[in-house]
Specification:
Order of helices and strands of chain A: HHHHHHHHHH
Oligomer: heterodimer
Mean pLDDT of chain A: 83
Number of strands of chain A: 0
Structural class of chain B: mainly alpha
Strand content of chain A: under 5%
Helix content of chain B: 55-70%
Number of helices of chain B: 4
Shape of chain B: elongated
Distance between the termini of chain A: 40 Å
């Protein structure tokens, strides 16, 4: 009975989605909004990567909200998983964990610095080429995950991560308020000089915001990983 | 042409995710199915932003500033996809945390054992 019901639901959904697929035709020209973004981001913001320009200036308020969502998830996961240790006989199963094999441990020592450098590259080049704060932060978290896999009982300094993350968030908002005072509006990138187009130090506040975002996302994801370990 | 292929892939992924969420009884498999639906949606969003003959909206040697408003794809869906991926990750993290708590309560991950609040 249930099987028939779910099959029916899937067929109905397939019909709805099929109308989307059949009615779709490739765009031949850009929509006006996209066209103005493609014109404004290189000219006004001085950022070659249009997507980063949208994320960190035109829709930066949205990005701030997103980071707030990530923060709430880190707190929420901690809330849901807290009190678990008290219920169980904690400590016993953590000590009983077998360490990772030698291959994983040695590979971690080689790979973690490389992954960290790659993450820094992605974050710092977000305004010039493909990349940005979210992507680089996720790469940092993958390095932390590798560390935790190699040594499951390694203690992560959660207090330090929380303080760094909060500091990055406060600085992000301060740069935004600076835009309100010294430039056109909240999170406007002209707080800092726009500089030469395509140079490393260019595009005003966008690289600064990118770095802050990368630090914040990396710390938040690391805290979430640490919460899941217990 | 290529964007309709990508769009169809996204829609099929959404259907597979829905099928998995409806038929499987293991909570972890349901979570995987839900994130499949999310991935299908991201592919769909990116496919909608394609413009025929367009390239990535990053200005470099392949795309000069003057050509950007004519030869690039729509950057807005790409920016929205980044947002959607982050929110999808947050949802998955919360789902997994609940799965851990449910396993602690009943020592099983089958959804059939959790009948308390069923009507």
């Amino acid at each position: 009975m249930q099987r028939i019901l779910s099959a029916g639901a899937i067929v109905l959904f397939a019909l709805v989605l099929a109308t989307i697929a059949i009615g779709y035709s490739e765009q031949l020209t850009l929509r006006p909004l996209a066209e103005s973004y493609l014109r404004l981001v290189p000219q006004d913001l001085g950022a070659p990567n249009v997507v980063t320009g949208i994320l960190l200036t035109f829709r930066a308020f949205d990005t701030l909200g997103e980071v707030a969502v990530l923060f709430m998830v880190a707190a929420g996961v901690g809330l849901v998983l807290s009190g678990k240790d008290a219920a169980q006989t904690s400590g016993q199963d953590i000590d009983a964990r077998t360490p990772a094999s030698e291959i994983v441990r040695n590979a971690t020592q080689i790979l973690v610095p490389l992954i960290s450098i790659f993450a820094a590259y992605i974050i710092m080049n977000g305004h010039i080429s493909a990349g940005g704060g979210f992507q680089g932060g996720a790469v940092i978290a993958s390095a932390v995950l590798l560390l935790l896999l190699a040594n499951p009982s390694r203690a992560l300094n959660t207090a330090f991560l929380s303080v760094t993350e909060s500091l990055a968030g406060v600085l992000f908002v301060l740069v935004g308020i600076g835009g309100l005072i010294f430039a056109g509006g909240f999170l406007n990138n002209r707080v800092l000089p726009v500089g030469q187009f395509g140079a490393f130090f260019s595009a005003g506040a966008i690289p600064v915001l990118s770095v802050l975002l990368g630090i914040k996302v990396g710390c938040e994801l690391s805290v979430i990983l640490d919460r899941f370990r217990s | 042409m290529i964007s309709s292929l990508v769009l169809t892939t996204g829609l099929v992924l959404m259907l597979i995710g829905l099928w998995g969420a409806l038929t499987h009884r293991n909570i972890l498999r349901i979570i995987i199915s839900l994130s499949l639906i999310g991935t299908g949606t991201h592919i769909l969003i990116v496919a909608i932003g394609f413009v025929r003959g367009g390239t990535a909206p990053i200005i470099d040697r392949a795309l000069t500033i003057a050509e950007a408003p004519v030869r690039a794809v729509d950057p807005v869906p790409s920016a929205l996809a980044v947002t959607a991926i982050v929110i999808g990750l947050a949802v998955t993290a919360v789902l997994l945390a609940y799965a851990i708590r449910l396993y602690d309560a009943k020592k099983t991950l089958s959804i059939d054992t959790f009948t308390e609040s069923k009507w």
